[in-house]
Design goal:
single chain, alpha+beta, 5 helices, 24% helix
Amino acid sequence: MTIPQYLEDMLQQENRSEADFSMLSISYSVEESLSADIAINIKYYNSKAIAYAKNYCGKQDNACHVFLNETDKTDCAHFVAHCLDAGGITIKTTDPTANFCPSGLAVRNTDLVAALRFLASKHDNMTEIGMVDAIVGDIGFLSNLRRPSHAFLLCEPVDLRDPLKPAKVWAHTSKKCCEDTGAEIRQWFATIFRITNS
């Protein structure tokens, strides 16, 4: 299988290989009469993802009872993977170097971005957009200029009248409950995904 250039670049930046991507599994539902290969939309419930974010944003916990807070293991991607799972998209990894969630959910930003880009390339109700178009419930990833470095769900969009005012997010590691990202400039280079309800 040939992998897209963006994924090859992300893997290279993390000293990983194409084999790492094969350790990801993505499961989701589509309209009952269609296969995932031809379905236009993914079944997704934004309200359930947001409810999960609101419930767990202020806690050092997740539904799996694991909270990652070490120098090289933070919980932002893990938290967003649980939000996505609550909404109907399950992204798992079998990579033994990143298998910290008892539910098997992905814990790396790059894995989530790769999976979401894959889904966006196949289904109409999932798109990659910019911060200027982001709305409540969109999934975002700040970048450290090399790769995605922090994951969040958008709680309050950016006020375009004040572009240096940060967006408000639900996130983990720093436990943000509809609080600003603290990323006044970096937010404009964020990768954002919108998944509309099917």
